[in-house]
């Protein structure tokens, strides 16, 4: 098997409208496609960033909570590259998003930090 690329990350949210606004209005993703699946009582939202399809956002009735802390097995976080981390933190803070203090990657010397989406999914921004 030869993997060519990451195709997408699937995220299940508890409040579809809130998460849709977060990923589009705060993080700047573009909506490629939005489908309501009546038989599942579920939305599926395909999101792109800079023309690259990256996230499938799903809603399901009463999804179970994600065990996140301290460190649960499974997906740890998703990470996005940014050019200016201080400017990104300032923007997130202006939208009332709590951002952890900026850290320095001990191996690369690059700056990074974390914040959470509306369902407490950890998101990292990493200065590239």
From TrEMBL:
The keyword Electron transport does not apply. SUPFAM superfamilies: Glyoxalase/Bleomycin resistance protein/Dihydroxybiphenyl dioxygenase. Keywords: Metal-binding. It comes from the Bacteria. Coiled coil: none annotated. PROSITE patterns: VOC (PS51819). Residues 5-128 form the VOC domain. Gene3D superfamilies: 2,3-Dihydroxybiphenyl 1,2-Dioxygenase, domain 1. This is VOC domain-containing protein. The lineage of its organism: Bacteria, Pseudomonadati, Bacteroidota, Chitinophagia, Chitinophagales.
């Amino acid at each position: 098997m030869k993997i060519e690329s990451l195709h997408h990350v699937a995220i299940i949210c508890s409040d579809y409208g809130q998460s849709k606004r977060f990923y589009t209005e705060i993080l700047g993703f573009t909506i490629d496609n939005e489908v309501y699946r009546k038989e599942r009582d579920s939305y599926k939202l395909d999101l792109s960033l800079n023309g690259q399809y990256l996230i499938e956002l799903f809603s399901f009735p009463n999804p179970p909570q994600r065990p996140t802390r301290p460190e649960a097995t499974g997906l740890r976080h998703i990470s996005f590259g940014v050019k200016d981390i201080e400017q990104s933190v300032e923007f997130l803070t202006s939208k009332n998003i709590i951002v952890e203090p900026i850290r320095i990657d001990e191996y690369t010397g690059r700056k990074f930090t974390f914040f959470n989406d509306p369902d407490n999914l950890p998101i990292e921004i990493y200065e590239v």
